[in-house]
Batch of 4 targets.
Target 1
Amino acid sequence: LHPVAQSKSTVLIEGESGTGKELIAMAIHQNSPRRLGPFIKVNCAALAEGILESELFGHVKGAFTGAISDKKGRFELAHKGTIFLDEIGEASAATQAKLLRVIESGMFYRLGGTTALKTNTRVIAATNLELAPAIRERKFREDLYYRLYGLGIHIPPISERFEDLLHLTAAFAV
C-alpha cells in the first residue's frame, strides 16, 4: 500500500460490494503526501446525473431552478487533497467525459459557468462493476478507464480472505 500512497497516480479499486474499497482509499490518502489535505467522498451511484455533476463541479447562481447562489463542487473542496469517486461505473457518459477532462488537465467548469477553474486533486475511484464488459458495450469510456487505472487494485471477495475475517470481527466486536 505504501508505494501506491506515495505515488501521484490515479487509483482504480475494483471489487465486490462490501470488500472495503472505501477503507483502502482512506488508507491510501492517510499515508500519502496529501494526508493533510481533504479526503472528499462522492458516491456516483447515489446521485442523479444533474445532481452528480453539480456535486462534482459546483454550479453558478442561476444555472438551474433552485441555484440561488454559487456553490463549490467536490473537486474544488478536494484541492490539495484526494477525491474518492465511489461506484464510478454508474456515472453517465456526459459525467464521464467531464471527469476525463479534469483528470487530464486539472481544469473544469462549474455547471452554468464560463470560467475554467483549476484543481490539484488526486483521484481515487472504485467500482463493483467489471468495467471491461461495460467498455465493450460502450457504457464506460475506455479512455477514462485508462486514466483512472494509473494504479489498479483488485480486492478479492471477503469469502476468499479468511485471514481478514479475524481482524474485521475484532474491530467490530463490542
Target 2
Amino acid sequence: DKKAEANYDKKCLRNIVKYADKIVCVSQGIADGITNEIPNLKKPVELITNGYDPEDVSQNTIDVDFDKSKINFVYTGALYHGKRCVDMLGTVLKELIDEGKVEKDSFTFRYAGSDYSELLDQLGQYDLAGTAVDHGFVSRDESIAMQKNGSALLLLTWNEKSYQGVVPGKLFEYMSMETVPIIALVTGDVVNSEVAQMINSSGAGCACEQANPEDIQKLKAFVLSLFEGGYKQSSSTKQYSYELISKKYTDIM
C-alpha cells in the first residue's frame, strides 16, 4: 500500500530529524522537502552536494576505441522506462539534419546499461536508431573510460512539481572529466532545476529544460557548435571535488 509506505517514510524522517545532531542534504529540493514536512523544525538544514574523486579519472588507464571523426554522445545508466529520455536532443539533431547542417553518419550514441531497447525506441521517433551503439554492461572503470573519450556526456533527469531536487550522482562523475561537455536534458514542468543551475554556474556544458521553451534553441546552437568545432570547454567544477566537500563536512563537525 503506497499510502502506508509514505506514512512510514514520514515517520522515519521525523525520528531521524528528532535525534540528529546535524541535518545535511545533498540538494535544495530535498532540504525543502524536509522543512515542508516538518515546518516547526528548530534545527538548521545544511546543504552539501555530492561530488567526485579526481583520482577516478587521473588513474584510469583503460582505452576505448571510439571513432574520433564522429561526435560521440555518451550515456551510461538506466532510462527508467522512459522517465529519462533523449527527446529534446533527438528533436534538435533531426532539425539539423533536415536543414543540411549535420550528416546522420557524423555522430553516434554510445550507450552502456540495460535499457538499450528503450534508447532505440526513443531515437527511432527521430529516425536515429541507426546511430546507436550498445556497449552493454560495463565496469565502472570502463564507464569512466567511455566518458573520458566522449564528445559530449548526456545527463537525463527530471524536475517536476511533485518531485524536485533530483541531482543524479552521474552529474558529478561527468564533472570530473572537466574537458568533456555535459548535455543535460531535464524533463518536467518546473524551470530552473538544480541540475541546470549547477551546469550553468560551472560552465560544464548545456542544460535544456522541457519547461523552458527557449532552451531548445540554446541546445540546438550548442550541438551545432560541437559539430562545427567551435565549442571550447571552460568549466570550473573543482568545488565539487571530494577534497573541498570533505572540508565542508569538517567545518560542520
Target 3
Amino acid sequence: TSMHQVYVESGKGAILKDVTGREYIDFSGGIGVMNIGHSHPKVIAAIKNQAEKLIHTCFMVLPYEPLVRLAERLCKVVQVPKPQKAFFVNSGAEAVENAVKISRYYTKKPGIIAFDNAYHGRTLLTMSMTSKVKPYKLGFGPFAPEVYHIPYAYCYRCPFRLKYPTCDTCCADHLKEFFINQSAAENIAAVIAEPIQGEGGFITPPAEYFPKLLKICKNNGILFIADEIQTGMGRTGRMFAMEHWNVQADIVTVAKSLAAGMPLSAVVGKSEIMDAAHASGLGGTYSGNPVACSAALAVMDVFEQEDIVSKASVLGTKLRSHFDILQKEFEIIGDVRGKGPMLALELVNDRETKEPAAERAKALVKYCVDHGLILLSCGTYGNVIRTLMPLVITDEQLNRGISIIRDGLQSITR
C-alpha cells in the first residue's frame, strides 16, 4: 500500500507532477533519497551514458572502473579512521547487514546493541535491530538472536525521567549498566546507531552523547557503526551527521541519496576492519551495479560543483526559523528538533502531559497532500512531522510549503 494515492508521472528539483498534471511540492524526497532533487540532468546523463556502455557484469566476476572511482571518492568524504575502504551493495538494509557481518567477523563476537526507536531495515537481521513493532515487526518473528536494545537519548521524552543537562547524559552511561545486567562487553561486537533517529522521530542526541558513548565502546573493544543512511549525503547540513559531534565511527553505512534514486548502498570502514573477512565472504550479484555507481559519481560531482552541503546548511537555518515561529503560534507543537534541514515537529495534545497527537498528525499530512504538499509523519507514537525535501528547493517553494503546513495546523487545531 502507498501512503498517498498520488500517481507520480515526473519530477524536477523539489516539484512532482502527477498523471493528471497537478504539481506538488515535495517535502518527502522519496524518504530522504532525492537530496540533489528529482531528475538532476547530470545524473540522467550519467545513467544514459553508462547504460549504453555496460549495464552489468557482477563485480565479483569482472570488475569495472565506476565502482573503483566511487569507492575512492566516498572514502574521502566519509569520516572513519584512515586508511579506509568501501564495499557496495544495493539497499540500506543490505549495508547494515554487511556492517554487522564485518563487525562480527573482525571482533569474533556475536552481540549487537541497537536502540529503542531505531529503524535499520526490514530484512530478518535489520528488522531485529529495528525497534518499532507496528508495522515493522508484528507477525514476522522469530527474530535474529544476539540483538539487544537500550534506551536512546530522547530528551523530550527521557526514558530515565530526567532533564538535560542536569542528567549528565546518563543514557550514554547506561551502556555500562547493560554490560552488567544484559550481556557482557566481551560478548558485544558492535553498537549501531542512527546519529539522528529517522523513523523513530528525528530524535537528536545532545552534544555530549556520542563522544561519551564512543569512549565506552572503545574502552571495551566494541565497534561503533553509524547508520547514516537517512542522515548522510548533506541531509543535516554536513556531509555526514556524525561530523556535528566531531567523532568518528568505525563503520558507516550510506544509501538513500548516494545515487539519487538508483539502488546503491555502501559500507565504509577502517581498512583493517573491512579486510577482516575472507575472500568472497562478502558480495552479491547486483552489488555496486555500474549504472548505479555512475549515477553516484554524478551525485558526487553535483555536491562539489553546486556546493550542496552549504545549501543544506542555509536551508536548515531558514527552516528552523520557520518552525520556531510555528511552535510559538501553535500549542500543538511540543518540540522542534533535528539538525540542518533534517527537522521535525512533534505534535502533542497537551504540552504539559505530552500526550502524542497521532491522529492530528495524520490529519495534517492529509491536509497538506490535498493542498499540494507531500509530507511524511514518523515517530514511535506516529505524532512527528518530518522534513526531507530536496536540498535544492527554492525559497519560493519552501515558503509555499511552510504556508501549507501553517494552514494545515490551523485546520487541525480549530
Target 4
Amino acid sequence: MDESPYRPRYHFTPKRNWINDPNGLVYFQGEYHLFYQYNPAGSDHDNISWGHAVSYDLMHWEELPVALPYADGVMAFSGSAVVDWANTSGFAAGENPPLVAVFTGHHTIQKRQDQRLAYSTDRGRSWMFYTGNPVLDPGLRDFRDPKVFWHTASRKWVMAVVLSNEHRVRFYGSPDLKSWEHLSDFGPAGSIKGIWEVPELLELPLEGHPGETRWLLKVDVGAGGPWGGSGAQYFLGHFDGARFIPDPGDLATPCWVDRGKDFYAALSWSDLPNTHAGPIWLAWMNNWQYAKDLPTHPWKGALTVPRRLSLAPDPACGELVLVQKPLPELQKLRSSHLRLLSQRLAAPLKLGPQPPVLEIRAEFVLEAAREFGLRLRVGTGEETKVGYDAAKGQLFVDRRNSGPSGFSPDFAQKHTGQLRPENGRVSLHLFLDACSVEVFADQGRLVMTDLIFPNPTSNGLEVYAEGGSAWVESLDVWSLEVSSK
C-alpha cells in the first residue's frame, strides 16, 4: 500500500524503492525505453541496478523487471543505450538489430569504475552481459556515465564519459562498441565546485533557422549547483567527431540548464523517429543534498516531464541559449478547464479548491505591482509562490512555506532566475503534480523545477499582486488525469 500522499500522477516513479538517474533512453519498434538507477532491495542508494519501464507515448509507463542487476560485486551505474542498426557489435540474432547498453561498472571492493556492455535481442525484455567486459578500463576510481551515439559524418560510435574529480569530459571513438580509442578531452570549465557526472552531447536545431544546428555539451555537478547541492550546466559549440570546440566566450561562468533545485542527470532518447522535432530528454527530479531524506514511502525519487530541446537567441543579448519545452502530447491529459480573461488584479483572487495535479498557463501585463504571480497548494500556513519580482526582473519559486521541510536544512528556499518581460508581458506555463512544480517561462528559455511536500488539505489556488495592480491577460487551469495504462 502506498502510504505517501505525494505519489506523482504523471511523473515517472517506480512502485517501490530508490530511483535516481535516468539511463539508456532509447526508442525501438514503437516503444520508448526508460532505464534508471534503481535499488531493487530498498529506499537508499545501494545495490544499484538498471530498472526498466516502457511507454508508447512518454506519459503512460509499464514497469518491467530489472534489466541490469547488481552482480558479482559490480553495480550497474549510469550509461546509455543505442540501437546497433548495422550490427557493428555482432550481437544480433537473426535480422533484428540488437539494443546495446553501455554502462559504468562500479566495483564495490576494488573501488574503481570501468565501462561495460550488455545487449538485448528481444526488444529489451532480457539482457546479456558481454563476456568481454570491461570494454574500457584505464584503472581509475572515478570514470563514469558513458553517453554513446553514432556520429554519421565520421562513421563511428562516439562516447562521452567523465573523469569526475578532474572535471573533464573524455571522448572516445569506436567502430564496434567494443574497442575504444581516446579522441580528446574537454574541461575543466564552468562550475568545478563538485564532481562532474552524466555528460550529454547533443546536436540541437536553431529555432527560426531551418537546417542550422549547434552542439550542446551538458555535464552535471554533484555540488555547487545554483542553489547548493547538485545541478546541471551546459556549454555550446561544435563537434567534429573527435573534439568539442566551445563557442568563444566566458567558460568560467556556468550556464545552468534549470534554475530550480531539483533537476539532475538529464539524458535524451536515442534513435527517435524523424517525426520528432528535436531531441527529448528528462532528468532526475531531486537534489543530492536531501535525496535520501525525502518524506515519501514506499518509493524514493521521481523523474521530470519529458522536454523537447532546441536553441534560440536570448532577446537580452542575442546569444544562443537552451530552450526546453514540455511535450505537446501532455495536452492529452487535460480534463476540466477553468479560464479567466482580462482582469485587473489588486487583491488576491481565490479560485477555490483545486486538484493536486494541474497544468496552468498565465499571461500577466506589467502595471504598478512590485510583485505578482500564483500561489499554489494554499492551505493553513502553506503555499508555494511562483511569482515575478518587477524591481529585480526575476522570476521565482518560493517554497519556504510549501509544506514539511524539516527533513533537510537545505530544502526551504526561494529560487530565482532573471526574466526580461516581452512587450511588457510575463507568460508562465506550469505543471503541478502531487510533490513537484515545473515552471517554463520566456518561451522555454527559463525553466525552474522544484519539489514540494504540501499537506493534502492544502488545495487552494490564488492569483495575486502586491505593491500595486497587475493585469491578468489570461489564465487557463486544467486538471490532469492519467489512466493506469
